[in-house]
Amino acid sequence: MTGCEQPRSTSIRVDSSVPYRLQPPSLVPSAPLVDQAPPEARSSRRRLRACHECDWLVALPPLSPGQRANCPRCGHTLATRHRQPAQRSMALAMAAMVALLLAISFPFVSFSTSGVGNRIELTHTATTLIGFDQPLVAIAVIMTIAVLPGLYLLGVMWLQLGLLQDQPLPASRHIARSLAHLNPWMMADVFIVGALVSLIKVSDLAQIELGLSFWAYCVFALLLLFTTQSIDSDWMWFSLAGEPLAPEGTRTGTTAAPQGLAGCPTCGLVNRLEASGRGHCLRCGERLHARLPHSLQRTWALLAAAALMYIPANVYPIMTTTSLGHSDPSTIIGGVVELIQMGSWPVAVVIFMASVIVPVGKLVALAWLCLVVKRSNELNAAHRTWLYRLTEFIGRWSMVDVFVVAILVALIRAGTLMSITPGPAALAFAAVVVLTMLAAMTFDPRLIWDTPLPRDRHATQGTTG
Ligand SMILES: [Zn+2]
Ligand SMILES: [Zn+2]
């Protein structure tokens, strides 16, 4: 925590040689591209933010609806301003909730072959797995496709209801804090892709009929995406708990950690840390660290566990198809080869990308980032941060194959004529997805931007206790 990094600017105002990138400026042609307030107004402790990805301290300029403020150093979005954020989020969350309720109330999809058939509801994709001794996979499926999104939508409605009445409802701050943590674990969009892949896979073997729930779930997935994008967390936290001033003497245009400060990852407020490099956010109560504790060690451990689980995920069958008494187990790669033989090239590519390229690419990319992070500098940091963002973004799409298993196991139940059972690889592969997602979360991208001096490295590790 020593000031071994030379501050670029000693004044409190933002380094004007690095203008804010506000997008899209065309929406509000007269909007200022930089904070055009008079200098005395700028030298305040109001609306300071430390970038979560590079730790750069800036003062947020006034934003008009449709604009967003990006970090001048790494390009990370610091705040996005929406038009009528409360009304918008409320309307979208309510519509998404209705679509989710419809999706769990009606038949999802049915199949029939030679006069024998089966019809399933959305929740059967999880409950059938429990019958095959796969409770963990079942929990992962039902949580990511229905329970967590449902809780998220209820949370959004509760929050916005309070904000619309100018009187936040009880527990609003806890809920607002939880919403940010739920976000990556909601996988309605991935489930839709999984459903399409499963249906194409069996379309040659049986007649498939899509139920009302299927379409309702598609609408729900879309509305859920819009709801998460409609949240203006900067405005929401200001409305919930005001904006306490940043600590006295905070300098912008340099990094926060050498000043003993940290930006809150949830609400954005800049807080002073204790000498140990830890603290709690004054506004939302979130735990703060100068750098995530043991970030590299934890990421390595999770990567090692994921790499280990990737072996059984590929060696064991992910599902077994039984047709007229003949059992045919298939591994992940075997499934891809089968699809190519069937001539379903696009589906084979989707499964190959989701089950091989994404998890392996993510393991390699994160391991490489952990290796080179101490040799990063301003020249290569932007590319490395971009790679980190990519691994964080694509990680959840690996769940496609797990959802395919869940849907096919529930749907294809026609006794000895044809049935599909889950294999041990399903659990191993679900574990790979969860472990790599956790690995991306424990990796602290701010380390990429830290000055690679021995003293600094020592300080960083010192704070991890
Ligand atoms: Zn940044
Ligand atoms: Zn906070």
From TrEMBL:
Its main location: membrane. The chain crosses the membrane at residues 91-116, 136-161, 182-200, 206-226, 300-319, 347-372, 393-412, 424-443. It holds the Pfam family PqiA. It is a multi-pass membrane protein. It is found in: Cell inner membrane. It comes from the Bacteria. Keywords: Cell inner membrane, Cell membrane, Membrane, Transmembrane, Transmembrane helix. Belongs to the PqiA family. PANTHER family: INTERMEMBRANE TRANSPORT PROTEIN PQIA (PTHR30462:SF3), INTERMEMBRANE TRANSPORT PROTEIN PQIB-RELATED (PTHR30462). This is Paraquat-inducible protein A. It comes from Billgrantia antri.
